[in-house]
Amino acid sequence: MSETQTDKTVRSLAMRSSLANCPLVFETSDKLRTLSLYEKEVRKKAFDNFIAAEMRRQQSKLKEEQQIFITQKLEDNPVEIGSRTHSPSSSLDEMTTKFTHAETVDHATALLREQRAASCRKSRINNKLRKASLKHRNDFLAEKVSATKRTLAVLSSKLQTAQQYLLGSGFNESQIENLRSIYGVSCMNVN
Question: How many CB atoms lie within 10 A of CB 179?
Answer without folding.
Answer: 15
